Structures are given as C-alpha cells and as structure tokens.
Amino acid sequence: MPSSKKMAVLLNLLSFYVLGQAAKGHGDQYQEIIPGTVEADNSSMCGSPSSLNLTPDYDPKIWAYPPRCEHGDGGNACLYTSNSFAGGRGISMIMPPEIAGNVSKLPAFTEEGLLDAANREGDLPYDSKIIPGRGMGAVANRAIKKGERVTLFNPLVMIHVGSRGAAPADKMRSMQHQAIRQLGSEQQGLFLRQHGEFGGDEVEDIINTNSFAMGGVAGEDNTFVAIFPEVSRFNHDCRPNLEYTFDPSSLTQATYAARTIAPGTELTVSYINLISPRSERLYVLQGGWGFKCNCPHCSRSLEELDISDNYIQKFRSIWPNCGEIWSSESSCPLDDAMELTWLAKQERLDGQWIAMCYFQAAKAFKRAGLDSMASKYHQLAYDNTRILTFEL
Q1: What's the pTM value of the predicted model, to 2 decimals?
Q2: Which end of the chain is more exposed for a tag (fewer CB within 10 A), N or C?
Q3: Which homologous superfamily is 4-269 in?
C-alpha cells in the first residue's frame, strides 16, 4: 500500500478531475491587470447574526473570523480564514465543518518554522515575461539543474470538492468572494491578477481556470481544489520541463526541474495527462482551458506526430501490466519494463514517468537475480525525479 504522499502523487499523475468548467490545471496565461473589486455580500458578512456559526471545530487562535456556513441538499460548507498562516501569507478554506478540526491540527498550522522556506518569491530562478503567442509566462534567469526545486508555495485558497455543490450557486459565489476579501490586500491582488478563461463571475472564473486538485488533506478521502497564484504563471507544455507534487501535511506545492533548463528557456508544466495522443490532448485543452495547444511537441510535422501517437498508444497498451509501482506483488515482465523505458525516452517523458519505468525495470532485474542491473536502474529511477521515492 503506497503512503499518503505517494497516493497524492498518483492523483497528480493518473487522475484528471473535471472541477467546475476546468480540470485540475491552471490558466495558460498570467495577465498583469489592475485588481478588480471583490463583490461584497453585506447580508452574509462574517459577524452578522445569521453567520455567527461557531462550530465545534472553530479555533479562534487559528481562524481570524467566525466561520460563515451555508447549508444545502449537498451538505454543509463553511468558510475559514487564517491571516497568520505561513508567516502572514494567509489562507482561506471552504470545507465541511466536520473536517475543519482535523485541518487545523495539520503540521502546516501547528509546527513552528515548517513553512519558513516556502513562499519566497524573491528567490525564484525565473522572471515573468510576455511569451509570443502564449501570453505571460515564466523564463529561466539562470541555469536550473535537473532535480532542482524551482518553487515551493502554499495556496491562497482551498475549496473542498464536496463543498462546491453543498450550497446554492449564488451563495457559493458569495462565499468565494468573501474568501478573497478576508485575505490581506496584497494577497487579494495576487489572486485577482490571475487569468480567467471562461468569463462570468471574476472570482469563480479564476478558480475554475487556475485550480489544482490536492488530495489526501486531513484524510485520504478529502480532495480540495487549491489556488497557487505564483504557479499559474507557468504555461502548459505537453512535454514540460517542470513537474510538481503536493504535500498534504504542510499544504505546499513544489515544482522541480524534470531536466536541466538553460537560461532563457520558458518554464512549463503539464495541465493534462501526458500519456495521451495529440487528438486527446487538443480536445481536453480546448475544452478545459479554451486554447489550442501550440507547444513544440504538438507543432511537429504530421509524420512526427503520427510516430509519437503510435508510441503513446503502445505505452498505454503495456502500462496496465506494470502500473502497480509499489506493490510487492508487481510482476511487470522485464521485456515490458524495458520497452516502457525506451518509449518514455522517445517521447521525452522526463521526470516521474520515466523514473517509474526505470523502477519497474529495476524490480524485474531483481526478480531475475540480476542485482547489479537492478541497482543500476534503481539509481536511474532516483536520478530522474525528486517527486517519488523508490525502495527495492
């Protein structure tokens, strides 16, 4: 049984949620705009008689305001805001009141100094620049080594997936506006400068465009959508040079270089499942984020795209035989593991994917009694990602 951290990583790799109008990703542009006015709903402001719902899990030492709660056929949703979280960065969370107590006991809220290394935008190895044809993006301002951590941030906003349907739509939109309004002015501006793709309510549009799915928070069944404004600057690429992971105990998202990155190179992440042929990638990106992908991998010749699609289909046909990465009963045949490794190299599936292929090869070599080859491929797995850990 994989650990909670590994389960969270598998959520990133293998599951792609449709949350509102967008899946788990974030916008393809970051626009420097003048922050709009966050809509106020004076009838349900925290502190009014109807919203002073002091649930058993409200801890005033952590949460800056009494929680505002909405009730509907889908359950209960309460808004909690901490302005002291992460050294004053702050966070607003919309979640069922019954899990708020467990959330407030997470190390992110209780361990002093745990987040000291997070949210340091001044130390980042990239600059925000206009990318022709792609809007605002992030460009490396120095060489970034393979495996180097590029960013480490806490979210500004987290919304429990179950809470999104708990209250009537107008009440949820009002609660989302209040979630932003209760943050500091700097954090409000940071949130509102993100790109919205779909139109309509500004705050909801930003959430739908820029949210990541973050699983295993205060329980393996708890999935949130989380907004990391700094990471929304990374444009999509079907063969990205960054990979990311979440730590549900510290509520941090980290990005790492999947390969060595030269100065002047745009930094990219993938919004979608990398193991998809071009037609699927274009369909998901157009429907979920409203753009036709023009990344280098999708812009190759038709002949090259056909070859790539054939490699992907072959990879997908073999993977079910080898997908039980951490199971002691995994029996991926050596030939399959080596073919997956070869296909991953051809497709430039850098980072986690090729590392998992190397690890399956290491396990297959070990079962065959070829310990030196098992050790070699085990090291290759370790060398190709900082997201996963592999134990033979």
Answers
A1: 0.84
A2: N
A3: SET domain (2.170.270.10)
